[in-house]
Write a structure and sequence with these properties.
Helices cover 20% and strands 41% of the residues. The chain is an alpha+beta fold. The strands form 2 sheets. Strands 1, 2, 3, 4, 5, 8 and 9 form a 7-stranded antiparallel β-sheet that branches. It has a two-stranded antiparallel ribbon with strand order 6-7.
């Protein structure tokens, strides 16, 4: 699907899946308006490994590579290709917010910013419940609680 101007769309719903746009596409995981927990999935370049001696691969930059080969002072081949492998990592960043006000990374500080009048209630909830801000299931549980405030 191609969208000409993503910023004009509040959300996209395909069957049971809902997507928002906030500097990239976010998929809703839990919650409902006015508070949605969403995930942004993306692929990032993690490493580049060049071919080294004896066909080994290394991410160290000690191996030299050449783009041309000289034969008796004349260019023999100017289209040499550096052999390298790229390593990609799949990332899932969790966010909280809504289409009207935007989304923020799902961190304690951002949750407290969103609910400044309920800081004490949220702190008490976080103390009595083991919430890990890196764990999706914990944040789904916290989102459910925040919707009751």
């Amino acid at each position: 699907m191609a969208i000409a101007n993503e910023k004009t769309i509040l959300y996209i719903q395909i069957m049971l899946d809902t997507f928002y746009y906030d500097n990239g596409y976010l998929e809703a995981l839990a919650g409902r308006h006015p508070l949605v927990m969403a995930v942004k999935q993306y692929v990032k370049l993690a490493d580049t490994r060049k071919e080294g001696p004896m066909g080994t691969r290394s991410s160290a930059s000690a191996a030299q590579s050449y783009g041309v080969l000289l034969d008796q002072g004349h260019l023999k081949n100017s289209n040499l290709v550096v052999q390298e492998d790229i390593v990609l990592s799949r990332n899932n960043d969790l966010y909280i917010g809504n289409a009207a006000n935007g989304f923020l990374p799902y961190k304690k500080g951002n949750v407290l910013k969103m609910f400044p009048k309920r800081k004490k209630d949220i702190d008490n909830y976080l103390k009595s419940n083991a919430i890990d801000f890196r764990d999706r299931a914990s944040l789904v549980k916290l989102t459910g609680y925040l919707l009751t405030l």
